[in-house]
Amino acid sequence: MHARVGARGEILLGRNVVADGYAPRPVRVVTHAHHDHLRGLRRSIRHSLFIVATPTTLRFLEVLGYHVPPGKAVPLGYDRAVMIEDEVVRLLPARHIAGSAQVLVDSREYRVGYTGDFKMPGTLPMADLDILVLDATYGDPGRQRRWSDWQALAALVGLIERYAKRGPVWIYGYNGKLQEVMVELRKSGVTLPFYADARTVRLAHIAAEFYGVELRHVNVMDGGAPDESAVIFQHARLKSRLGRMPGTHVLLTGWEMRDVIVRTGPSSFNVSYSDHATLREIIEYLSESKPRLVVIDNYRGKDAILTARYIEKRLGIRALAMPAGSPSLG
Protein backbone atom coordinates (compact mmCIF):
# COMPACT_ATOMS: atom_id res chain seq x y z
CA MET A 1 0.00 0.00 0.00
CA HIS A 2 1.61 3.24 -1.15
CA ALA A 3 0.09 5.53 1.52
CA ARG A 4 -0.85 4.63 5.06
CA VAL A 5 -0.87 5.79 8.69
CA GLY A 6 1.57 4.00 10.96
CA ALA A 7 1.03 2.87 14.54
CA ARG A 8 2.47 6.10 16.00
CA GLY A 9 0.75 8.50 13.63
CA GLU A 10 3.49 8.67 11.01
CA ILE A 11 2.12 9.22 7.50
CA LEU A 12 3.97 6.94 5.07
CA LEU A 13 3.85 8.16 1.46
CA GLY A 14 5.40 6.22 -1.39
CA ARG A 15 8.76 4.63 -0.70
CA ASN A 16 10.86 7.53 0.57
CA VAL A 17 8.64 9.98 2.43
CA VAL A 18 7.26 10.10 5.96
CA ALA A 19 5.22 13.04 7.20
CA ASP A 20 4.37 14.21 10.72
CA GLY A 21 5.99 11.30 12.54
CA TYR A 22 9.17 9.26 12.63
CA ALA A 23 10.04 6.39 10.32
CA PRO A 24 13.46 5.32 9.00
CA ARG A 25 13.00 7.04 5.65
CA PRO A 26 15.27 9.52 3.86
CA VAL A 27 12.69 12.35 3.77
CA ARG A 28 10.69 13.73 6.73
CA VAL A 29 8.00 16.25 5.82
CA VAL A 30 6.59 18.56 8.49
CA THR A 31 3.18 19.80 7.33
CA HIS A 32 2.91 22.42 10.08
CA ALA A 33 4.25 23.32 13.51
CA HIS A 34 1.68 21.77 15.85
CA HIS A 35 3.02 19.41 18.51
CA ASP A 36 1.00 16.36 17.40
CA HIS A 37 2.64 16.68 13.97
CA LEU A 38 6.17 17.07 15.38
CA ARG A 39 6.42 13.70 17.15
CA GLY A 40 9.79 12.09 16.57
CA LEU A 41 11.15 15.16 14.80
CA ARG A 42 14.43 15.28 16.74
CA ARG A 43 14.99 11.65 15.80
CA SER A 44 14.20 12.45 12.16
CA ILE A 45 16.67 15.34 12.26
CA ARG A 46 19.35 12.88 13.36
CA HIS A 47 18.56 10.06 10.93
CA SER A 48 16.73 11.41 7.86
CA LEU A 49 18.66 12.91 4.95
CA PHE A 50 16.24 15.82 4.47
CA ILE A 51 13.63 17.71 6.51
CA VAL A 52 11.12 19.24 4.12
CA ALA A 53 8.70 22.02 5.11
CA THR A 54 7.56 25.42 3.96
CA PRO A 55 9.93 28.28 4.81
CA THR A 56 7.43 29.58 7.38
CA THR A 57 7.19 26.21 9.13
CA LEU A 58 10.97 25.90 9.28
CA ARG A 59 11.14 29.34 10.94
CA PHE A 60 8.46 28.27 13.42
CA LEU A 61 10.45 25.12 14.23
CA GLU A 62 13.54 27.15 15.08
CA VAL A 63 11.53 29.30 17.51
CA LEU A 64 10.07 26.15 19.06
CA GLY A 65 13.56 24.76 19.73
CA TYR A 66 14.06 22.40 16.78
CA HIS A 67 17.35 23.11 15.04
CA VAL A 68 17.43 21.64 11.55
CA PRO A 69 20.98 21.77 10.15
CA PRO A 70 21.19 23.85 6.96
CA GLY A 71 22.44 20.83 5.05
CA LYS A 72 19.28 18.91 5.90
CA ALA A 73 16.66 21.66 5.75
CA VAL A 74 14.70 21.86 2.49
CA PRO A 75 12.53 25.01 2.52
CA LEU A 76 10.00 24.10 -0.14
CA GLY A 77 7.58 26.78 -1.32
CA TYR A 78 4.03 25.97 -2.34
CA ASP A 79 3.72 24.19 -5.70
CA ARG A 80 7.50 23.76 -5.92
CA ALA A 81 8.90 20.25 -6.36
CA VAL A 82 11.85 18.22 -5.17
CA MET A 83 12.79 14.83 -6.65
CA ILE A 84 13.83 11.97 -4.38
CA GLU A 85 14.97 8.99 -6.47
CA ASP A 86 11.94 8.32 -8.73
CA GLU A 87 9.42 10.28 -6.60
CA VAL A 88 8.44 13.92 -7.01
CA VAL A 89 7.43 15.60 -3.74
CA ARG A 90 5.35 18.79 -3.67
CA LEU A 91 3.88 20.92 -0.90
CA LEU A 92 0.50 22.51 -1.63
CA PRO A 93 -1.37 25.17 0.37
CA ALA A 94 -3.52 24.09 3.30
CA ARG A 95 -5.60 26.56 5.28
CA HIS A 96 -4.84 25.73 8.91
CA ILE A 97 -2.06 27.82 10.45
CA ALA A 98 0.67 29.92 8.85
CA GLY A 99 2.87 27.74 6.67
CA SER A 100 0.60 24.67 6.68
CA ALA A 101 0.89 22.38 3.67
CA GLN A 102 -0.55 19.35 1.98
CA VAL A 103 1.87 16.74 0.62
CA LEU A 104 1.73 15.22 -2.86
CA VAL A 105 4.02 12.35 -3.92
CA ASP A 106 4.13 11.36 -7.60
CA SER A 107 5.85 8.48 -9.32
CA ARG A 108 5.30 6.44 -12.47
CA GLU A 109 3.50 3.82 -10.39
CA TYR A 110 1.30 5.89 -8.07
CA ARG A 111 0.08 9.32 -7.05
CA VAL A 112 -0.67 9.73 -3.36
CA GLY A 113 -1.39 12.68 -1.10
CA TYR A 114 -1.87 13.77 2.50
CA THR A 115 -4.02 16.73 3.46
CA GLY A 116 -2.38 17.44 6.81
CA ASP A 117 -4.72 19.55 8.93
CA PHE A 118 -6.94 21.80 6.83
CA LYS A 119 -10.22 23.64 6.54
CA MET A 120 -12.34 24.99 3.70
CA PRO A 121 -12.49 27.26 1.83
CA GLY A 122 -8.86 28.05 1.23
CA THR A 123 -7.50 24.53 0.63
CA LEU A 124 -7.36 23.42 -3.00
CA PRO A 125 -8.23 19.69 -3.18
CA MET A 126 -5.63 17.39 -4.72
CA ALA A 127 -7.01 15.46 -7.69
CA ASP A 128 -6.39 12.19 -9.56
CA LEU A 129 -5.03 10.41 -6.49
CA ASP A 130 -4.70 6.70 -5.99
CA ILE A 131 -4.78 7.21 -2.22
CA LEU A 132 -5.55 10.28 -0.11
CA VAL A 133 -4.62 10.31 3.58
CA LEU A 134 -7.15 12.61 5.22
CA ASP A 135 -7.35 14.61 8.43
CA ALA A 136 -10.85 14.21 9.90
CA THR A 137 -10.52 15.61 13.40
CA TYR A 138 -14.18 16.68 13.34
CA GLY A 139 -15.47 13.73 11.33
CA ASP A 140 -18.28 12.62 13.63
CA PRO A 141 -21.59 13.42 11.84
CA GLY A 142 -23.25 13.92 15.23
CA ARG A 143 -20.78 16.61 16.42
CA GLN A 144 -20.78 19.47 13.96
CA ARG A 145 -20.55 23.24 14.37
CA ARG A 146 -23.47 25.08 12.78
CA TRP A 147 -21.53 28.30 12.18
CA SER A 148 -18.49 29.36 10.21
CA ASP A 149 -15.15 30.39 11.63
CA TRP A 150 -15.89 33.88 10.28
CA GLN A 151 -18.95 34.04 12.53
CA ALA A 152 -16.79 32.88 15.44
CA LEU A 153 -14.24 35.61 14.74
CA ALA A 154 -17.00 38.21 14.56
CA ALA A 155 -18.28 36.97 17.92
CA LEU A 156 -14.78 37.27 19.38
CA VAL A 157 -14.46 40.84 18.10
CA GLY A 158 -17.80 41.62 19.73
CA LEU A 159 -16.62 40.21 23.06
CA ILE A 160 -13.46 42.30 22.94
CA GLU A 161 -15.37 45.48 22.10
CA ARG A 162 -17.78 44.89 24.96
CA TYR A 163 -15.44 43.78 27.73
CA ALA A 164 -12.10 45.48 27.03
CA LYS A 165 -13.42 48.64 28.68
CA ARG A 166 -13.54 46.71 31.98
CA GLY A 167 -9.96 45.40 31.83
CA PRO A 168 -7.77 43.12 29.74
CA VAL A 169 -9.28 40.38 27.59
CA TRP A 170 -7.33 37.12 27.89
CA ILE A 171 -7.45 34.80 24.87
CA TYR A 172 -6.33 31.19 25.22
CA GLY A 173 -5.46 28.88 22.35
CA TYR A 174 -2.64 26.93 20.73
CA ASN A 175 0.37 28.15 18.79
CA GLY A 176 -0.66 28.87 15.24
CA LYS A 177 -4.26 29.55 16.16
CA LEU A 178 -3.23 32.39 18.47
CA GLN A 179 -1.13 34.00 15.76
CA GLU A 180 -3.87 33.62 13.15
CA VAL A 181 -6.36 35.25 15.51
CA MET A 182 -3.96 38.14 16.17
CA VAL A 183 -3.84 38.75 12.43
CA GLU A 184 -7.62 38.44 11.99
CA LEU A 185 -8.29 40.83 14.86
CA ARG A 186 -6.06 43.45 13.28
CA LYS A 187 -7.78 42.92 9.92
CA SER A 188 -11.12 43.37 11.73
CA GLY A 189 -10.09 46.75 13.10
CA VAL A 190 -9.10 45.85 16.67
CA THR A 191 -6.39 48.37 17.59
CA LEU A 192 -5.89 47.56 21.28
CA PRO A 193 -2.35 46.65 22.37
CA PHE A 194 -1.53 42.93 22.21
CA TYR A 195 0.51 41.18 24.92
CA ALA A 196 2.01 37.69 24.94
CA ASP A 197 5.10 35.81 26.07
CA ALA A 198 8.29 36.23 24.03
CA ARG A 199 7.90 32.99 22.07
CA THR A 200 4.30 33.74 21.09
CA VAL A 201 5.34 37.23 19.97
CA ARG A 202 8.16 35.85 17.81
CA LEU A 203 5.78 33.36 16.20
CA ALA A 204 3.24 36.15 15.69
CA HIS A 205 5.68 38.27 13.69
CA ILE A 206 6.52 35.28 11.47
CA ALA A 207 2.81 34.57 10.94
CA ALA A 208 2.06 38.24 10.21
CA GLU A 209 4.74 38.21 7.52
CA PHE A 210 3.16 35.06 6.03
CA TYR A 211 -0.30 36.67 5.97
CA GLY A 212 1.00 40.06 4.83
CA VAL A 213 -0.44 41.97 7.79
CA GLU A 214 1.21 44.55 10.06
CA LEU A 215 0.41 43.61 13.66
CA ARG A 216 1.50 46.85 15.40
CA HIS A 217 1.58 47.31 19.18
CA VAL A 218 2.58 43.75 20.10
CA ASN A 219 4.34 43.67 23.46
CA VAL A 220 6.21 41.01 25.40
CA MET A 221 4.46 40.36 28.70
CA ASP A 222 7.25 40.13 31.27
CA GLY A 223 5.30 40.50 34.50
CA GLY A 224 1.72 40.81 35.66
CA ALA A 225 -1.25 41.85 33.57
CA PRO A 226 -0.93 45.26 31.90
CA ASP A 227 -2.74 48.12 33.60
CA GLU A 228 -4.67 49.12 30.49
CA SER A 229 -7.27 47.92 28.03
CA ALA A 230 -5.46 45.22 26.07
CA VAL A 231 -5.73 41.76 24.57
CA ILE A 232 -3.48 39.13 26.18
CA PHE A 233 -2.71 35.91 24.30
CA GLN A 234 -1.82 32.80 26.30
CA HIS A 235 -1.39 29.09 25.63
CA ALA A 236 -4.55 27.10 26.37
CA ARG A 237 -2.81 25.03 29.04
CA LEU A 238 -2.43 28.18 31.18
CA LYS A 239 -6.12 28.98 31.45
CA SER A 240 -6.64 27.07 34.69
CA ARG A 241 -3.77 29.00 36.31
CA LEU A 242 -4.49 32.44 34.93
CA GLY A 243 -8.29 32.27 34.80
CA ARG A 244 -8.69 34.14 38.09
CA MET A 245 -6.65 37.14 36.99
CA PRO A 246 -8.60 40.40 36.55
CA GLY A 247 -10.30 40.70 33.18
CA THR A 248 -12.34 38.61 30.78
CA HIS A 249 -11.10 35.16 29.80
CA VAL A 250 -11.88 33.56 26.43
CA LEU A 251 -10.99 30.01 25.35
CA LEU A 252 -10.85 29.31 21.61
CA THR A 253 -12.01 25.72 21.08
CA GLY A 254 -13.48 23.82 18.18
CA TRP A 255 -15.03 21.34 20.62
CA GLU A 256 -17.63 23.87 21.75
CA MET A 257 -20.71 22.66 19.87
CA ARG A 258 -23.48 24.35 21.86
CA ASP A 259 -23.25 27.83 20.37
CA VAL A 260 -20.73 30.18 18.83
CA ILE A 261 -20.26 31.83 22.26
CA VAL A 262 -20.93 30.08 25.57
CA ARG A 263 -20.50 31.71 28.97
CA THR A 264 -18.61 29.34 31.26
CA GLY A 265 -18.27 31.56 34.33
CA PRO A 266 -18.84 35.09 35.63
CA SER A 267 -15.99 36.42 33.48
CA SER A 268 -15.15 33.53 31.14
CA PHE A 269 -16.40 32.37 27.75
CA ASN A 270 -15.81 29.69 25.15
CA VAL A 271 -15.69 30.83 21.53
CA SER A 272 -16.26 27.98 19.09
CA TYR A 273 -13.38 28.56 16.69
CA SER A 274 -11.38 25.82 15.00
CA ASP A 275 -8.61 25.39 12.44
CA HIS A 276 -9.99 22.03 11.28
CA ALA A 277 -12.57 21.19 8.62
CA THR A 278 -16.10 20.27 9.60
CA LEU A 279 -17.61 17.11 8.10
CA ARG A 280 -19.40 19.27 5.54
CA GLU A 281 -16.02 20.72 4.47
CA ILE A 282 -14.47 17.22 4.38
CA ILE A 283 -17.23 16.08 2.03
CA GLU A 284 -16.72 19.22 -0.08
CA TYR A 285 -13.00 18.41 -0.38
CA LEU A 286 -13.59 14.77 -1.33
CA SER A 287 -16.34 15.66 -3.83
CA GLU A 288 -13.74 17.66 -5.77
CA SER A 289 -10.77 15.37 -5.15
CA LYS A 290 -12.44 12.02 -5.92
CA PRO A 291 -9.52 9.81 -4.79
CA ARG A 292 -9.76 6.10 -5.48
CA LEU A 293 -9.15 5.33 -1.79
CA VAL A 294 -9.39 7.49 1.33
CA VAL A 295 -7.28 6.61 4.40
CA ILE A 296 -8.49 8.53 7.45
CA ASP A 297 -5.99 9.42 10.15
CA ASN A 298 -7.25 7.43 13.14
CA TYR A 299 -4.30 8.44 15.33
CA ARG A 300 -5.03 12.13 15.78
CA GLY A 301 -8.71 12.27 14.90
CA LYS A 302 -11.90 11.08 16.51
CA ASP A 303 -14.45 8.55 15.24
CA ALA A 304 -12.47 7.81 12.08
CA ILE A 305 -14.28 4.51 11.50
CA LEU A 306 -17.65 6.28 11.63
CA THR A 307 -16.33 8.93 9.24
CA ALA A 308 -15.13 6.26 6.81
CA ARG A 309 -18.56 4.63 6.75
CA TYR A 310 -20.22 7.99 6.17
CA ILE A 311 -17.88 8.81 3.26
CA GLU A 312 -18.54 5.44 1.62
CA LYS A 313 -22.31 5.85 1.98
CA ARG A 314 -22.43 9.50 0.94
CA LEU A 315 -19.86 9.56 -1.87
CA GLY A 316 -19.33 5.93 -2.86
CA ILE A 317 -15.57 6.29 -2.30
CA ARG A 318 -13.82 3.42 -0.56
CA ALA A 319 -12.57 4.62 2.85
CA LEU A 320 -10.82 3.07 5.82
CA ALA A 321 -9.40 4.23 9.15
CA MET A 322 -5.72 3.71 10.01
CA PRO A 323 -4.20 2.58 12.22
CA ALA A 324 -7.01 0.19 13.06
CA GLY A 325 -8.12 0.34 16.67
CA SER A 326 -6.09 3.46 17.47
CA PRO A 327 -7.24 5.46 20.47
CA SER A 328 -8.46 8.96 19.68
CA LEU A 329 -6.01 11.60 20.84
CA GLY A 330 -8.08 14.67 19.86
Tell me about this structure.
The protein is an alpha/beta fold. The protein folds into 2 domains: 3-142 and 276-322, Ribonuclease Z/Hydroxyacylglutathione hydrolase-like (Metallo-beta-lactamase, Chain A, 4-Layer Sandwich), CATH 3.60.15; 149-271, Rossmann fold. Helix content is 25%, strand content 25%. The protein has 8 helices and 20 strands. It has helices at residues 41-47, 55-63, 149-163, 177-187, 198-211, 239-242, 279-289, 304-315; strands spanning 3-5, 11-13, 17-19, 27-29, 50-53, 73-75, 81-84, 87-93, 101-106, 111-114, 131-134, 169-173, 194-196, 218-220, 231-235, 248-252, 261-265, 268-271, 293-297, 318-322. A 7-stranded mixed β-sheet has the order 7-8-9-10-11-19-20, covered by helices on one side.
List the helices and strands and how they pair.
Blueprint: E1 3-5, E2 11-13, E3 17-19, E4 27-29, H1 41-47, E5 50-53, H2 55-63, E6 73-75, E7 81-84, E8 87-93, E9 101-106, E10 111-114, E11 131-134, H3 149-163, E12 169-173, H4 177-187, E13 194-196, H5 198-211, E14 218-220, E15 231-235, H6 239-242, E16 248-252, E17 261-265, E18 268-271, H7 279-289, E19 293-297, H8 304-315, E20 318-322
Parallel strand pairs: 3-4, 4-5, 5-6, 10-11, 11-19, 12-15, 12-16, 13-14, 13-15, 16-18, 19-20
Antiparallel strand pairs: 1-2, 2-3, 7-8, 8-9, 9-10, 17-18
